[in-house]
Amino acid sequence: MASLLFTTTTTLALPGKTIEMHSPNQSYTLKAKGQGSSHLTRGSLGGETLVDLVGGYYDAGDNVKFGFPMAFTTTMLSWSVIEFGGLMKGELQNAKEAIRWATDYLLKATVHPDIIYVQVGDANKDHACWERPEDMDTPRTVIKIDRNSPGSDVAGETAAALAAASLVFRRSDPTYSKLLVRRAMRVFQFADKYRGPYSNGLKKFVCPFYCSYSGYQDELLWGAAWLHKATRNPAYLNYIQVNGQTLGAAEYDNTFGWDNKHVGARILLSKAFLVQRVSALHDYKGHADNFICSLIPGASFSSAQYTPGGLLFKMSDSNMQYVTSTAFLLLTYAKYLTSSHTVVNCGGTTVTPKRLRALAKKQVDYLLGDNPLKMSYMVGYGPRYPRRIHHRGSSLPSVAVHPAKIQCSSGFSVMNSPYPNPNILVGAIVGGPDKNDRFPDQRSDYEQSEPATYMNAPLVGALAYLAHSFGQL
Fold this sequence. Notes:
It is an enzyme of class 3 (hydrolase). Keywords: Carbohydrate metabolism, Cellulose degradation, Glycosidase, Hydrolase, Polysaccharide degradation. GO terms for molecular function: cellulase activity. The structure is a single chain. The chain is α+β, with helices and mostly antiparallel strands. The chain is about 40% helix and about 5% strand. It has 17 helices and ten strands. Helix 4 packs antiparallel against helix 5 and helix 12 crosses helix 17. It starts with a strand and ends in a 6-residue tail after the last helix.
């Protein structure tokens, strides 16, 4: 049975103790011009003190805080800073602030041992409305995992996020960094001790939105990899050695995103072997190479599909998330290979770091407009970009323009209209074109037109490198 903390709406918020606070629409560090705050209120319910769940991000175009993709977004934004923060210049502080907004929330969501609050909002009821975050009146159901209803996947990812972020703040805020890594260790212990996918016990709340399709094994390996990197505690290296194979280290599942972390873990652990010379992790170089070979057109073991225009195509639903995450991994692995003066051998085809960077650059260039439609899939960038994105706050008139409340179902007339969104969500990446490079730019087409935080996060690192690589491609 799912664990419910409480069900309430903003109309019950009273001065006093915290029910919940939300960032407005800070899914991309920037919010659409003209938007106000949502759920930045304090309250209590029947005199009961409720958990402080201030902060965090909505995952995409809806008004729900899903902990699973939020944690992955945090991990990838942190990894972007870890690898390429030195190239971010004036944007580094903005990236760190975006990470901290997420980790502050994740610390609150994990404040009680062996409990993680993994969702705020009733997704089914939220999706039955098309309303601004400021007007939201759907139930703010809080859902948790615990010993009786475990979730090793979301817990493992949360541990990874906290551990990765601890590295981001190690020098600038060592006290905060230590808090993050200590919490990561505790959360990972919970994830490993009480095993099971969170969508077993919470299916009616988290599916089909963020079901754990790949299981929880990948998150345990991923979480252990980040804790090994963050702590250098030999216990985590031993955990990886003992459990790696049973957790799927060598599987040929070459998709990296919010659900499946195997490829990311392989790339991350390969660095320990290639750069830090941790010989016990030798096999992960081979596992990472297998992933790389799957991407190289014409090479042995190549299995990736590309559109006629050259875009990596994994699936029709939010395909651009795999483009941004793969571009990041290509650039990151190229960095590791360069540091160790190593290449990839794909059945007789030698693949150099330069080739990996070129492939990554081609994907990012396509995303930014070098494609058959000459369409930038980053909102607000270039002369032509998606104007009807599947995002409530962007599509509905701002409070400044339309102060009166827009009721739950009233907004669907806007959602179904052909008019462009009035609020431009600058920087947001949408799902992208289909396998034939077509993009209808329809608000109702969430598979292609919805933005998401986990599409943007890996791109931050890739753009930092490509913007300042000075020809090192």
